[in-house]
Amino acid sequence: MDTAFIKDILLALKAELIRFRFWCVLLFILVSGIALLVGVMWPKNYATSALLFADETNILEPLLRGRAEVTSIDRSVQAREIIYTRGIMETVARQRGMLTKDTPPEQEDRIIRAIRGGLDVRSEQNNYFRISFVSNDPDNSFETLNTIINVFIENSASKKRQESLNAFNFIDAQVQTYKRQLELAEEKLKEFNAQNVDGTEAGVATRIAELRGEIESLKITIEETEARINTITTQLGNESQYQQTKGEIDELRQRRQGLVNQLEQLLLVYQEGYPDVISLRAQIAELDTAIHMAQASGGDVYTGRGEAVENPLYEELRRQLSVAKVDLRGQKRRMESLIHLSEQEHERAQRVAANQAQLSELTRDYNVTRDVYEEMLQRKESARLSMTLDIEGQGISYRIQEPATFPLKPSGLRFIHFAIIGPILGLLAPIGLLVLYVMVDPHFRSARALQQQLPAGIELIGIIPHYHTPLSERLLRKDVVILFFLCLLAMAAYASFASYWHITRS
User: Fold this and answer.
1) pTM for this structure?
2) Which end of the chain is less enclosed by CB atoms within 10 A, N or C?
3) What is the pLDDT, as a whole number, of residue 69?
4) 43-214+331-412, what's its fold?
């Protein structure tokens, strides 16, 4: 939208304003008068409000802190729900004298709805909330709001006292319950200790460790005994039961060794088939046979009476072997006994572990119940004190932070507002209608708009402007003067009536 088009629109608007000048002035006066009439008939509402503080501390909360979570309540929302209840509304209406025993139910509902319609409860920050009431009578607005606040606070105090009593009864019932649970836990603990005498886990573990140490030590002893038996048995195999003639056998061995040395010297020079090598091997074989026969015969030494002389080392080794075998049998029997005792101790350890778990559970239940019982006794006394304070009226949850003030002026739109806005609307109404008419009128009022509507290749030749004769110009000026004085007269009457009504009726 360029400047030329806006200029054409303004010129068209001026032309239409001159054309419909009488209707525009009439519309201006009519709209202003209607706005003033609306201001006269507009109802007056007197609003007053009071600011209350909601103490969100609950009686049960300090009494059950650490034991039970008390539900957090939005006191402003709760206050709104309480104030809007029918019981509060009926009490307010009866105290204000709006309701009597003979009031019909339909009228009673209308009165309660009217009170609810004028009432507003809004939440503000930091546990504050504002109660407002609107009425067409300032006295009724002020008195009704004070009555609502008083009834609400009295109702809250009554509920707080009931809450304290319920809290005390609840705590007392819990004390009795935990007392019975504590007695039952004590009885179970006594019965368990009387029935289980297997000892403690520490004692059983010590005994098992001792047995394990003895078993390990005994295993080492058995291995040493078995090694000693094997050694003695080997020595017995190398010793003869009777003494032997060692000299002859040693001599044969020395001769054999000499022949072996000679054979080795010959093999360095000659082969196996050499006669001397074959002769030496035959002599060595004969000596081996002789040594074997001497050893097989035992080479026993006999006395002059033909009796064999026993070997004392052989007898000593046999005695040691017998003692070692006896020790081994005793050690194995002791090992079996220790293993059996260890198995019994492990079984006892399992029983003690099971009993210990049950004992721990019983002890834990007993300790927890005892602690809760003792704490609940203290909380019971606190609940008794809280109940006493609330009965004496020191536990009210709501306080008036800003009392209600008497409304001296009506709230919202007043007559003066309509009186001021009337001429403005009267002026804007014809201008707006003319603008709308110019925008939707299908006639061409601009050469530029016509040029844009023509097909391509067709140009606008010229424009014929409106022609005003001197007579028409004089008549136009005369009409403008008349309409101007008419508007002045209308505005003077408008201002006079508005001032009178504002001074006398507002």
Assistant:
1) 0.43
2) N
3) 44
4) Bacterial polysaccharide co-polymerase-like (3.30.1890)
